[in-house]
Design a protein that fits this description.
277 residues; alpha/beta; Rossmann fold; Pantoate--beta-alanine Ligase, Chain: A,domain 2; 2 domains; 3-stranded antiparallel sheet; 10 helices; 20% strand; binds adenosine monophosphate
Length: 277
Amino acid sequence: MQVIGTIAELRALRQQLSGAVGFVPTMGYLHQGHLALVRRARTENSTVVVSIYVNPTQFGPREDSAGYPRELNRDLDLLHSEKVDVIFVPSDAEMYPPGFSTWVDVENVTERLEGASRPGHFRGVATIVTKLFNVVRPSRAYFGQKDAQQTAVIRRMVADLDMGIEIVAVPTVRESDGLAMSSRNVHLSPEERRAATVLFEALTLTRELSRGGEKDAEEIRQQMTSLIQKEPLARIDYVSIADASTLEELSFIDRPALASLAVTIGKTRLMDNMPLE
Ligand code: AMP
């Protein structure tokens, strides 16, 4: 396993690789969700590259990238156990040198949900992922269903800019009570952690309603909303039933749809989603 901090070193190493390269971009503080991506990449490629970088440009002015949890040595141990070949851990100065002025803006799919709640977020994501793709030049890149809109944005970008990279979406890994694993869960107090199960409960209700034949999206949104409102620690940011690829809100479920929600519990903003067949 090689740990690399500079673009120049990674480029030099990349030139020597033959065969498929699988790439897993992360912000570190790894959990089983990240490792599911890494394991999938390991089975499908000769070389696996993981990046660990807390990208400051995808955090809004009122969000704190410096406060994002970090534990590099533990992350490196976990990735070593998964037989990852290369770990890229760049500094901010390496990724955004003085004079940096070029941004990747994906339109439409970025304007809703997370994009509406966190202006500029997807511009930061698309820009850093493009830069990482340009350096790693992967055959396949692995993203979590957990961040369904991010995966949709990356798919759009890869198609529009002819990047020629296969985007693989990996199902969400959950705790035993259904809470989606997230690096942010560490911020929850024990009481908030208990309250956080309301997200999965709302999605489970959605799935049951949908399986029962409910096609009225507004009816489902209302039932999700009233279930979440029963939890005093939860504050809804959005509740959505949308087209699974464009993320446009639906009034009637007549195509593959995605139920998604963002809810703040205490001071921690959590999000989750579930595809509706
Ligand atoms: P992050 O470090 O939060 O930027 O996440 C890095 C990648 O891991 C993203 O593609 C996420 O969607 C994915 N990921 C995060 N949490 C989970 C989870 N619980 N299950 C599956 N993938 C996840």
